[in-house]
């Protein structure tokens, strides 16, 4: 295999690894932003439950005060009713007492509702507080793991880019220019392996004579269908490479 073809294969392997690292480096901050967004949503929901519980307790306290005020009023009205001089005045006191008693029942019904709501809200708050404690710890672990992963990726990226520079320097200018032109045009894949007369990227069958020329690996030849640089990896070489990845993976 001529050096330009061997270097092109190596260069594509490096470019694919570099692209993979760049995607991962770009994705990691998005992952952090997403888990922080979810945590923030849970915090806001907890604050809403706390606010609802606080409002519940304030209303409950007010109603208990209203009940006490009405009961005191009823007690005074009953004392005054005993001193009524006429039936008209007596009945007026009775009506006012009945009205106050009706208000007390209304307040007490609402108090029962609030107490029921309070139990559910307190349960939600306790559960959310416990869950958030665990979630915050998990988020911090993930953030640390992500920072560590990013540092490793950046180191590997720098090494890959340095190795790419060395590979480029070993190619002829014409071969590298062709490689870059095809890579940009073909979604980052400039080299295609030929297996049993077939371009493994575009899956087109090569002409028999052209296939034989490709098999010799003595010149840089491009697929007549997709335009990618073609290479032939003899079966023995592929077996020797096992169990590692293909030269084009």
List the helices and strands and how they pair.
Blueprint: H1 3-81, H2 87-169, H3 173-185, E1 191-195, E2 198-199, H4 208-216, E3 221-222, E4 229-231, H5 235-241
Parallel strand pairs: 1-4
Antiparallel strand pairs: 1-2, 3-4
Helix pairs in contact: 1-2
Structure description:
- This protein has 249 residues and is mainly alpha-helical.
- It folds into two domains: 167 residues, Helix Hairpins (Orthogonal Bundle); 69 residues, no CATH class.
- It has five helices and four strands.
- Helix 1 runs antiparallel to helix 2.
- The C terminus is likely disordered.
Keywords:
single chain; 249 residues; mainly alpha; Helix Hairpins; 2 domains; rod-shaped; disordered C terminus
Major sheet: arrangement of strands: 2-1-4-3
Question: Any idea what the shape is?
Answer: rod-shaped
How many domain regions? 2
Helix/strand/pairing category? mainly alpha
Q: Give a count of the beta strands, DSSP E runs of length 2 or more.
A: 4
Q: Roughly how many Å is the radius of gyration?
A: 40 Å
Q: Name the CATH class of the largest domain.
A: Mainly Alpha
List unreliable stretches of 5+ residues. Answer: 237-247
Binned strand content: under 5%
